[in-house]
Design a protein that fits this description.
The structure is a single chain. By secondary structure, this protein is α/β, with parallel strands linked by helices. 35% of the residues lie in helices and 16% in strands. The mean pLDDT is 97. It contains 13 helices and 16 strands. It starts with a strand and ends in a 17-residue tail after the last helix. The site of flavin-adenine dinucleotide has 42 residues, from helix 1, strand 2, helix 4, strand 6 and helix 10.
Length: 521
């Protein structure tokens, strides 16, 4: 079936929903999402959204903290822009019905996280993302100009390549006409043609064996754009959150928000000793790359499987009020945080790199925008400052809306796009070929391309991934398309990009730490 629309939005997290609501004032929006519409990284965000809110804080301080965390690789112009525009975008979230916690005097209760010099994180208990997603979705569901297609999976974007043209990464004027979309309910592949397409597909956590990201995070948007010969950047900067709950067998890993360390929680080794001061004067509240590496080092040198987060000295009532979800989770596992320390380990959490965009969220492909975690805007550089991601998503969703809606009148929907050709393909009888390969990708990436890397490990990972790539391409050619098959293809692509970009960067900087390389100063 061919479907036509003004705006095609791929993804229903904070980025896609924020854009869709704004775009609906200018035209018809189709929002497709591969799972239930609320399932997204956004839904699980705990700590909150950073914004300069009180007089004690300033744009300059937030800019300085962001640049400092980013290891010298942030684009300062973008940092300043996001932080300057951020407050207005957060205000819009509030106007759309998002609740953030307040103190008794009516002021917002601003929290602190690693790398922030001020309390500036607006939050709703420890379930901020769930609250934002709830508020945005309730608006989107009531909007007549937005049609949601859930359980629809975007396979590839459509460009002139699908009309027979030869397209390379050097081709000028590659143009996006929409996307091929698989209805995972009935297996039909629709051709969705749009004047403007918005990639809002989120992160890629499942390229690693241990991640805080839900199962949807398979890097689809980045892989689709890379295949279409769009440009991507900074893929080596993979953020590992220092404190996910150590609970073997639980996938994805449950996050223990950094805000607990902002509230006074202290990291200790199994013998009850503090260790972070050895690594950084900011102790347990140093930026994430430093804390994750310190934990990794302590675990490896001591031969222990996890470290501990000590909350026993904290105010019980305040803790339960601020972190009810985490408290319940721990209690259900028999860990009373006021009696026992919480076992934690680092887990993949966020991808700083992604699809290159300019300050208007435009990719290198005409009429294709990228917003949210799948985009690389220049805000994060080599390491993202905590709670800057939700902020980046709303700022760039707004900018994408402004630019794309003003261009809408001039764009014609492309005709004569061929439907998806599935001729000669057959059903996959052995799902094990896909599930086992996915596990292999995750093992390769976790073991060789994790928190600490070396040239030898990267080379080994590259060679192993190449075998999986060749096997998977053959499956992709011969078998009927499924979501799992496409996700595996995308995960292999993401793994390849992370390794390739890691090999290229000949220094240790931010999240990219190579054992034998000099640290960038
Ligand atoms: P997502 O919210 O991940 O949404 C992506 C959407 O795209 C989903 O709807 C998905 O189904 C859809 N999709 C993906 N591929 C396809 C496809 N092929 N076809 C169709 N649909 C597709 N950041 C902060 O700033 N503050 C925090 O406190 C914070 N806490 C976090 C806690 C956790 C546990 C996690 C995992 C992340 C946290 N982050 C936090 C990061 C932040 O939540 C994410 O970066 C942000 O929510 C990403 O939003 P997004 O809209 O770009 O993508
Ligand atoms: C957290 O709550 O620790 C996560 C915050 C973030 O990822 O920005």
């Amino acid at each position: 079936m061919q479907i036509k629309t003004d705006f095609l939005v791929i993804g229903s997290g904070i980025a896609g929903l924020s854009f869709a609501l704004k775009a609906s004032t200018k035209g018809k929006v189709i929002l497709i999402t591969k799972s239930n519409e609320e399932e997204s990284n956004t839904k699980y965000a705990q700590g909150g959204i950073a914004a300069v809110w009180h007089d004690t804080d300033s744009i300059e301080k937030h800019v300085a903290d962001t640049l400092n965390a980013g290891g010298g690789l942030c684009d300062e112009k973008i940092v300043r822009m996001v932080i300057t525009e951020g407050k207005q975008r957060v205000q819009e979230l509030i106007e759309l019905g998002t609740r953030f916690d307040k103190k008794e005097n009516g002021d917002y209760d601003l929290a602190k996280e690693g790398g922030h010099s001020e309390n500036r994180i607006l939050h709703y208990k420890d379930v901020t993302g769930f609250e934002i997603e709830r508020a945005l979705l309730s608006q989107v569901r009531n909007n007549k100009n937005i049609t949601i297609y859930n359980h629809h999976y975007s396979i590839d974007i459509i460009t002139q390549h699908h009309l027979g043209a030869v397209v390379t990464s050097q081709t000028q004027g590659i143009t996006c006409f929409g996307a091929y979309v698989l209805n995972t309910g009935n297996g039909v592949i629709d051709t969705v043609l749009a004047k403007t397409t918005i990639m809002a597909t989120g992160g890629a956590g499942h390229v690693y064996a241990t991640t805080t990201n839900p199962a949807i995070a398979t890097g689809d948007g980045i892989a689709m754009v890379y295949r279409a010969k769009g440009h991507v950047k900074d893929m080596e900067f993979v953020q590992f959150h220092p404190t996910s709950l150590y609970n073997p067998g639980e996938h994805p890993s449950f996050l223990i928000t950094e805000a607990i360390r902002g509230f006074g929680g202290v990291l200790k080794t199994l013998d009850g000793r503090e260790f972070m001061q050895k690594y950084d004067s900011r102790g347990s509240l140093a930026p994430r790359d430093i804390v994750a590496r310190a934990i990794d080092n302590e675990m490896k040198t001591r031969g222990e499987d996890y470290v501990l987060l000590d909350c026993r000295h904290l105010d019980r009532k305040g803790f339960i009020e601020h972190f009810p979800n985490i408290y319940d989770k721990c209690m259900n596992l028999g860990i009373d945080p006021f009696i026992k320390m919480i076992p934690v380990i680092p887990a993949q959490h966020y991808l700083c790199g992604g699809i290159i965009v300019n300050e208007h969220a435009q990719t290198t492909i005409t009429n294709l925008y990228a917003i949210g975690e799948c985009a690389c805007t220049g805000l994060h550089g080599a390491n993202r400052l905590a709670s800057n991601s939700l902020l980046e998503a709303v700022v760039f969703a707004h900018r994408a809306f402004e630019t794309s809606s003003s261009a809408l009148e001039q764009i014609k929907i492309k005709d004569a796009i061929p439907d998806w050709n599935a001729e000669g393909t057959e059903q996959t009888e052995e799902m094990i070929l896909i599930t086992q390969s996915q596990k292999e990708v995750q093992q390769i990436m976790s073991n060789y391309v994790g928190i600490v890397r070396s040239e030898l490990r990267l080379k080994r990972a590259f060679d192993r991934l190449e075998i999986l790539f060749n096997e998977n391409e053959k499956l992709y050619e011969e078998k009927v398309i499924t979501r799992k098959l496409c996700e595996l293809r995308n995960l292999i692509c993401i793994g390849y990009l992370i390794i390739k970009h890691s090999m290229r960067r000949k220094e240790s900087v931010g999240l990219h730490y190579m054992v034998n390389y000099k640290k960038k100063t």
